[in-house]
Amino acid sequence: MSEERFDLTVRNGRVVSEGQVLLADVGVRQGVIAAIGEGLVPGVRDVDARGRWVLPGGVDSHCHIEQFSGMGVMGADDFYSATVSAAFGGTTTVIPFAAQHRGMKIPAVLEDYARRAREKAVIDYGFHLILTNPDEDTLSRDLPQAIHDGITSIKVYMTYDRMKLDDHQLLDVLAMAQREGALVMVHAENHDMIKWLAQKLVDSGHTRPKYHAIAHDPLAETEATNRAIALGRLIDTPILIVHVAGGETVDLIRHARTLGAKVFAESCPQYLFLTAEDLDRTGLEGAKFCCSPPPRDGASQEAIWRGFQDGTLVTYSSDHAPYRFDETGKLPKGEKTTFKDMANGVPGLELRVPLLFSEGFLKGRLDIHQFVELTATNHARMYGIFPRKGVIRVGSDADLAIWDEDRETVVRHEMLHDQVGYTPYEGRLVRGWPTVVVSRGRIVVEDGMLHAARGTGKYLARGTPDVSRNAPAPSERMHERPQAGFIQSLLRRDAKAA
Ligand code: DUC
Ligand code: ZN
Ligand code: ZN
Hints:
- It contains 13 helices and 18 strands.
- The N and C termini lie far apart (53 Å).
- Helix 3 (136-148) runs parallel beside helix 4 (167-180), helix 7 packs parallel to helix 8 and helix 8 (247-258) packs parallel to helix 10 (298-310).
- The protein has a domain at 57-382: TIM Barrel, CATH 3.20.20.
- Strands 1, 2, 3, 4, 5, 15, 16, 17 and 18 form a nine-stranded mixed sheet that branches. Strands 6, 7, 8, 9, 10, 11, 12, 13 and 14 form a nine-stranded parallel sheet that branches.
- The chain is of the alpha/beta class.
- Helix 3 links the parallel strand 9 (128-130) and strand 10 (153-157).
- The longest helix is centred in the middle third of the chain and has 17 residues, at 218-234.
- One zinc ion (ZN) is lined by residues 187, 242-243.
- Dihydropyrimidine-2,4(1H,3H)-dione binds at residues 64, 187, 291-292, 319, 321, 344-345.
């Protein structure tokens, strides 16, 4: 072993590394993990992690940062406040969205987000692209170029008037993703069911926040998810269903995977720790809990835990979409705001990992390896940044979070670092907290203090998503679709012509 000093040595921690727990030191040089072992030579900086967990820094692969919503509302956090907030909660990589709204050209959209993030981010980041206009030029030129530049995942919407793609367009996007090696993320809710119900509710004077959960009926989620899975299966292309909320949707995805469908899925803290009852608070308070799909009920929460436990759900993300409780966000029409007017979304970048550490790992619902996969490793694999991110391995970026499992925290918004002004988790007791957070070997947070400057996060040009590790296990229910080969030959012919 080299005797040359490390830049940083993290000593005597319980290091979680690729399915093992090691009582070991981690030595870091030039931002990269250079050694894992006992009795490593000192670092220029030595951090004592005795009695603490040393885990890969979290990767949050679904968050909206400094982004206009489909309704044209800007979120409360910019790339600085969002990434600071993420770092304080043990997350060292974020993958937010560069959002194309109708009429915008993709290269200009990407350039705009890249510039804003470059100036402000304190941790590393990539981008997914939100796609609303899959026309011929976009599919044949702009998207292949974006994918080549490291934007290797694309989010599409099946709902929202100004975002939604129809099934024909979804198939075009899936075929392009297959050709170019990208992953398609799907917001799956049936648009017409929601629109129809919402109109009936408003017409009959039911406008309070709790009716948001009624308009977004669980069946709207299940139907659209089923359809998205069928579209993916039709042309044998993987899809990832984002923000799964309902128990029936989890069951549907599990079933489709037993048939061999390449469907992957994500869920979020709001579907584990909130319910539709939270939307029924006094006055308009329930607006703070409004997101789409909405939180459901206790049975759905249990189904989501089961989905995380058995691998039906592969990533746990925040879907951080921070809208202030005022005219700029949740209450555009003040006291007269109806559930249809409110910006949809909840904050979660900072509390995402602490909530799962407390309620998942420390309460025995997940073991430490499942916890690490769900908060970091699976995101890195699914979005093409593994093994650079999401794992403690020699050669990987030194992105670490040192966790004190005994620390008890009562969540108060004042202790958080976002700009949204409230948290849906106010007053909750959380056990365990990341006391030191390291990004590429730099200590960015230590004992409640920030040590990173604006603009020090780096852009990650991502590689091809690797879905193989999270693919469904072979089962006797899997069956070949006899026509699948013929459909593939049609796609290959199109690819050649392109
Ligand atoms: N729903 C979305 O689709 N995006 C942002 C937040 C939300 O609630
Ligand atoms: Zn969405
Ligand atoms: Zn989202």
